[in-house]
Design brief:
With about 200 residues, this protein is α/β, with parallel strands linked by helices. About 25% of the residues lie in helices and about 25% in strands. It has helices at about 20-30, 45-60, 95-105, 115-120, 155-170, and strands spanning about 10-15, 35-40, 60-70, 70-75, 95, 110-115, 130, 150, 175-180, 190, 195. The strands form three sheets. Strands 5-9-8-6-7 form a five-stranded parallel sheet. It has a four-stranded mixed sheet with strand order 1-2-4-3. Strands 10-11 form a two-stranded antiparallel sheet. The two termini are about 25 Å apart.
Length: about 200
């Protein structure tokens, strides 16, 4: 899975015991730009719980962990300051539950995932098309302006911006999926396997 993930920085914390991986991650994260992804390499098994809870407390996004030759590779994404802002501005929204029902009913629902490639690699809605928000304007030709499109991100913020952009460019039927992947409980897949959650 990790071979498909684009990372902006690799941080070597191998051989370090708690709390050093977190101390080094915190410093490295401060230097990253919002939206960038860091891979933290650690050998301390306790680093998994530490990194997860640190990300949760700081609002940065824990993407997942891959194990390779006894080395834990933790993937984190630096959040944008406005990503915790729950205000949705695009008029047409659809709930996670409504989208899950549509996917069950119709096989060819068009889901556009505007998160970063690393987020998409770890978990996504099966069949979702990945176009990160930053690339959307240059890749709009990959989408049909007359098709109904359901736009998803982690919390509904980036998808809100994507919906506005598509709408301004003449897309007829775009819907912002809220709250998005942070609370998605429908079918999931990642680069290693497909899973279906309850």
């Amino acid at each position: 899975m990790h071979n498909d993930i684009h990372v902006d920085q690799i941080l070597d914390c191998k051989g370090l015991a708690c709390p050093m991986p977190i101390v080094k991650t915190k410093k490295a994260m401060e230097l990253l730009k919002a939206g960038q992804v860091i891979e933290v390499q650690a050998t301390d098994k306790g680093s998994l719980a530490d990194i997860r809870s640190w990300a949760k407390n700081t609002g940065h996004q824990y993407l997942g962990t891959a194990m390779e030759n006894e080395i834990l590779k933790h993937y984190l994404r630096k959040s944008f300051p406005n990503e915790t802002n729950e205000q949705s501005k695009f008029a047409k929204t659809i709930s996670n539950e409504e989208l899950a029902l549509k996917i069950q009913a119709i096989m060819n629902v068009k889901v556009l995932d505007v998160r970063e490639p690393a987020e998409y690699a770890f978990h996504r809605i099966p069949g979702a098309l990945s176009i990160p928000l930053g690339e959307l304007e240059s890749r709009m030709h990959e989408l049909n302006p007359n098709e109904q499109i359901f736009v998803v991100c982690r919390s509904g913020t980036r998808s809100d911006l994507a919906c506005k952009l598509l709408s301004e460019k003449g897309f007829q039927s775009v819907n912002n999926v809220v709250p998005g992947m942070s609370e998605w409980s429908g079918p999931l897949e990642n680069n290693e396997m497909s899973t279906r959650r309850g």
